[in-house]
Amino acid sequence: QQPVQSPQAVILREGEDAVINCSSSKALYSVHWYRQKHGEAPVFLMILLKGGEQKGHDKISASFNEKKQQSSLYLTASQLSYSGTYFCGTFKNTGFQKLVFGTGTRLLVSP
Amino acid sequence: SQTIHQWPATLVQPVGSPLSLECTVEGTSNPNLYWYRQAAGRGLQLLFYSVGIGQISSEVPQNLSASRPQDRQFILSSKKLLLSDSGFYLCAWSVGGAKNIQYFGAGTRLSVL
């Protein structure tokens, strides 16, 4: 089952904040977050493994709810470099081999 | 450090022609290897993955195939391309395990005309 992301797209002005959500109907083992800039390959941002976990990376942080069915990515004081498409990912099988990516959220940060 | 090489960067092929995309990883042994396809403006679709030499798992039935002739080499092939094969093809590697973080190559943009 593919995780569903919301919103599908968001436009921000530099310095504004944004939240991207990733939801599943079933509990997830873990959640990966990746960012893909236009025309480039996705780049790994962070992984959350435990329910209730929160993790930060510069001004980008993420949380994983207690039931492990939703993760949120927080972008604080957005910069132009944050523009791109954000994907969450979760494992399709218990063998942790197949990562299924979410529907994606396009983020555009304007000056 | 580990690096992943993928080529060519862009490719324009006529319908019905064969395809061969190559991906190699340096600096690690026995990586998991993956091929993804991304249609324009869309998400990432897993096509094939491999956990070892000669071991290929297919996710989506189609006219594409994959092979892993060496530990750090992964090849995506087709005997006859279709228009619907156009897209951005990404190779990725991981060390496996419970985290299985994937690291992507630069991608090949394929246009089938």
What does this structure look like?
The complex is a heterodimer of chains A (111) and B (113). With 111 residues, chain A is an all-beta fold. Chain A has no helices and eleven strands. In chain A, strands 2, 4, 5, 9, 10 and 11 form a six-stranded mixed sheet that branches. The radius of gyration of chain A is 13 Å and the shape is globular. In chain B, 0% of the residues lie in helices and 57% in strands. The radius of gyration of chain B is 13 Å and the shape is globular. Chain B starts with a strand and ends with a strand. The relative contact order of chain B is 0.33. At the A-B interface, strand 5, strand 9 and strand 10 of A face strand 5 and strand 10 of B.
Outline of the structure:
The complex is a heterodimer of chains A (111) and B (113). Chain A is an all-beta fold and 111 residues long.
List the defining traits of the structure above.
heterodimer, A: 111 residues, mainly beta, six-stranded mixed sheet, five-stranded antiparallel sheet, globular, B: 113 residues, seven-stranded mixed sheet, four-stranded antiparallel sheet
Share of helical residues of chain A: under 10%
Ranges of chain B with pLDDT <50 over ≥5 residues?
none
User: Measured on Cα atoms, how large is the radius of gyration of chain B?
Assistant: 13 Å
Beta strand count of chain A: 11
Q: How many DSSP helices of chain B? A: 0
Distance between the termini of chain A: 37 Å
The best one-word shape of chain B is globular
| Strand content range of chain A | over 45%
User: What structural class do the secondary elements of chain A suggest?
Assistant: mainly beta
Q: How are the SSEs ordered, and which strands pair?
A:
The complex is a heterodimer of chains A (111) and B (113).
Chain A: E1 4-6, E2 9-13, E3 18-23, E4 31-36, E5 42-48, E6 54-57, E7 60-64, E8 70-75, E9 84-91, E10 99-101, E11 105-110
Chain B: E1 3-7, E2 10-13, E3 19-26, E4 32-38, E5 45-52, E6 55-58, E7 64-70, E8 73-78, E9 87-94, E10 103-104, E11 108-112
